[in-house]
Structures are given as C-alpha cells and as structure tokens.
Amino acid sequence: EDQVTQSPEALRLQEGESSSLNCSYTVSGLRGLFWYRQDPGKGPEFLFTLYSAGEEKEKERLKATLTKKESFLHITAPKPEDSATYLCAVLAGGGADGLTFGKGTHLIIQP
Amino acid sequence: EAGVAQSPRYKIIEKRQSVAFWCNPISGHATLYWYQQILGQGPKLLIQFQNNGVVDDSQLPKDRFSAERLKGVDSTLKIQPAKLEDSAVYLCASSYTRDREAFFGQGTRLTVV
Fold first, then answer.
1. Do A99 and B56 touch (CB under 8 A)?
2. How many CB atoms lie within 10 A of CB A87?
3. Residue A100 CB contacts under 8 Å (≥ 6 apart), including other chains
4. Which of A60, A66, B37, B95 has the fewest CB atoms within 10 Å, counting from its CB?
5. What is the pLDDT of residues B1-41, one digit of tens each?
6. Is the pLDDT of residue A97 over 80?
7. Using a CB-CB distance cutoff of 8 angstroms, which residues of chain A are in contact with residue B40?
8. Testing the interface with A: which of B44, B89, B104 to mutate, by most A Cβ within 10 A?
9. Whether the Cβ atoms of residue A8 and residue A103 lie closer than 8 Å to each other
10. Pairing of β B44-50 and β B31-37
C-alpha cells in the first residue's frame, strides 16, 4: 500500500526564518511527487511536480527537492503570506491511479 | 483560464437524507477526480474518471455513494443515505492527463447532523 508521511505536523516560524518540510514516501514505482498549498476553506493549490530523484523545482521563496525515499520543501526567508498547510502527494506506478496524499504540514509564519 | 467549478459551497443535511454535488472541470481536461477531505487529513481519492469512463472507484463506498460523468465533461457525486461520518469537504479536481498535476476546485463542505 502506498504511504506518504509528512513532518512536522505543525511548524511555527518567525518571518525571515528559513526551514524545510519533509515528505517521506513508500510507493510501488513513483510516477510523480506533487506539492500543494492549501489555505483555510479552499482547495489545494498546485505548486510543483517532481518526477525523478535529483530533480529540483523553485518558485519564489519555495524550493522542492526529491530523493528516492523523500522530498523536501525548503522555504527561504518566509513571509506571513506563506502561512498555509502544505500537502505532499504521490502518483504510484502500480495499482490505483490518483494521488495519495500525506496529512500535511501546517505552517505559521509570525511577523 | 477558468478553474474547476464546484457547487454548492456548503450543505447541511440530516442523516439518512440524500445530497448531490456538481463539478465542472477545466476545459480540455480528460481526467476528473473526486476526493474526500476530513478535517486535519489529506484528501482521499473516491473515484477517478478518464473522459466518461471510471478508471478507479476502489475507495468509493458504493452502497451509498455514486458518481457519473456525462459526455466526459461535468460530473456529479451523490450520497444516499448520508451518515454522520460523511461530514467532510468534497473536492473535485481535473488534469490534462493521468500523469499530470491535478487542479482542484474550492470544494463543498458537507455537514451531516
């Protein structure tokens, strides 16, 4: 069974304090790893797709990296508007289609 | 580009009643998904369509949930009869193909009392 574990569950940072969120996964053949941002009362907003180990993607203050067992979402000099729940999801090669999500990391950036 | 549209945004029903949700995906997206998100959890796939055919419905409680996608565009998800544990946000998403990123709608928050 495909599994996605995100850590920490919650993280509180000061504005400008850089950190990383972790997503570890166990899948039968990874077809893609996805990062989403979810604000309260809204649907997940797509951020990145990573397809193979060693791949990196960047967008503003966010950078996503991928290894064979985990992915990291690095947040550099965050601002209060980066506060949200960050979800990691995998698309596996075997079995059912569709994304398998982790529970998310609830990130709060304090001014 | 217009996003995924869902309605209603909120619904409150009594247990054993029925409810239906509607989704209009992004134009040209062949793949459509329905997810259930319980508070504090990540979304869980209920059903996936490729055009108007079902690809995966292994996690859909078929004794009470049903879904259809007519003409490969709009989709409806129905619950009949609803249980208290069905209280959740129901998210519709679509993607260009099965291997590409999915884009989500705002969701429908269902409360069963």
1. no
2. 25
3. A2, A3, A4, A27, A89, A90, A91, A92, B45
4. A60
5. 689 999 999 999 999 999 999 999 999 999 999 999 999 99
6. no
7. 103
8. B104
9. no
10. antiparallel
